[in-house]
């Protein structure tokens, strides 16, 4: 398999790019990318494409996502998660946290943080401000003012409500939640804003992504494709000759096992977007960048089915006018055997 989609259950303590590097090392190819960053603290579904499947990543990254998280109410941190420094709490926070109830939290979530809302991303995020990442400016002590953006939260379910004590002896509340949301939503910001709304501060102590579009690692039917990894310390010498140690991701599967669990290019495309059956004549037209006279209302994957039921991804197409489909990305068609090609109808079109 030269191209495919990998679903990796990312471990805590490494970046998404670390997993991309691990895949490159195991498969021995450079053309590898991921669809949506997970912070080092986060675990769960990381979708990685290799070969021609990297061209599907821009489609997959825009899909809605589902997370499981723990939000600690009563403490705010510099980064809005457990990796940041705990910020000083106002004197009233002790009394306020005692008065917070589960029904109060549920009402605030339902009235303020569900549906179409505006969200200001975290200062410690990868959003670019004047050509620089926001987190780089924040680490330099600069005030980062990010604009609010429109997001959609389709589910924000409270799964648990527990009063506990933080490491510094402060009374806090840990709530467990499941959140389904549009692409571009910052779960850290949802935790931050809930704490602010209650007047007690809040940050994430746990975050796990379980779903990206139809790639749901909690679904039994996808379990045979899920890859796992572990984290090891890696010591190296930097450009200045100093030794540094950082975490490194190691896949638990070897090359053959990775390829055996990979989702094929055509199946990955069909999971990422609607599919459009095309004939061999239409496939050949798309390969040459020609438009098709087909009514299309949304982007789709043009798929050719051969007589032996083998499917091939020909192109990604998008609407152009009322009754025209335009190829936005074309995939080389490589038949398995050098013999006349027949589509599912049995019609023979030349040979390759």
From TrEMBL:
Enzyme Commission number(s): 5.4.99.25
> Catalytic site residues?
39 (nucleophile)
One GO MF term on file is: tRNA pseudouridine(55) synthase activity
Question: What's an example Gene Ontology biological process for this entry?
Answer: tRNA pseudouridine synthesis
Pseudouridine synthase II N-terminal domain location is 25-187
Which domain of life does this protein belong to?
A: Bacteria
* InterPro entries in the record: PsdUridine_synth_cat_dom_sf, PsdUridine_synth_N, tRNA_psdUridine_synth_TruB, TruB_C
Query: In its keyword annotation, does this UniProt entry include Zinc?
Result: no
Q: Does the keyword Manganese apply?
A: no
Can you tell me which family this protein belongs to? Belongs to the pseudouridine synthase TruB family. Type 1 subfamily.
What is its biological role?
A: Responsible for synthesis of pseudouridine from uracil-55 in the psi GC loop of transfer RNAs.
Q: What is the protein name for this chain?
A: tRNA pseudouridine synthase B
Q: Which organism is it from?
A: Bombiscardovia coagulans
Upper lineage ranks?
Answer: Bacteria, Bacillati, Actinomycetota, Actinomycetes, Bifidobacteriales
What is this protein's gene name?
A: truB
